[in-house]
Amino acid sequence: MIAVQYRPFWFKIFDPRLTGRLIAVIIFLFLIALSNALSLIATFSASNIAAAGQHLLSVLLYALPAYGLMKLNRWARRFEIAYSMLLVVLGFFLMAAFNMFMGMFIVVTHGLVGIVLLSAKTRELFYPPQDAEITE
What we know:
Elements: H1 20-45, H2 49-70, H3 74-97, H4 100-118, H5 120-126
Helix pairs in contact: 1-2, 2-3, 3-4
């Protein structure tokens, strides 16, 4: 493996073992959490407590796994795989019942998140091979 000689200061928040695809997934999850956080602020200003609770739950469901993935926590990978697969199923239902475009967007984006997290390269990051003991 070739070590990176120069890393921008903002890139140092990421573990150096992270792949580009996993960093893209983390950024995607943080962007969804950020948009829900902004919606949370808007619903509080409109005094809509029921919607605020939904946005707060969404912030937690996206931000916590994204942070866990950034720190290479196994629970975050397992949670996000399960959550992505659930959203893919819900996206198919949404396509069939209500809104074709929104359903396709959910299926494609969360399907790609699931594919990245299930890839062999990503699995190797979270479950590194054990050092083989050489006995003679």
